[in-house]
Design goal:
Elements: H1 7-37, H2 42-49, H3 68-78, H4 86-114
Length: 117
Amino acid sequence: MHPVTEIETAEITKVVENAHRYLQIAFAEELYLYCQANNINFPELRDALNTKWNVNILEPREGIGGHCLPKDTKMFLQSSSHFKSKILTEAIEVDQEYRRHIAETSSAKVCYYVNCR
């Protein structure tokens, strides 16, 4: 815990922490999509990148879920009429693209195994 002097700072702290985590996951998702498009082994790349002390690429899974991360990211985006975060707006788009990719590739795999026409 870190004491702050203004309640606004305390309130926005958790929102920003979750928006930052959202951004980290979206980066991992986009890197995964990049690897898929360029025939690069994502787990191997991720392992190699994470050997550096200041790098921690997360493992993308089924998209950014839960309640807090999406809610707080959107809350942060809507919290200022004077500033708009381009990077978080794009992170939301990356997550949506990643989810579409996962859905499409999952459907294709299911059809392969059950012989869909």
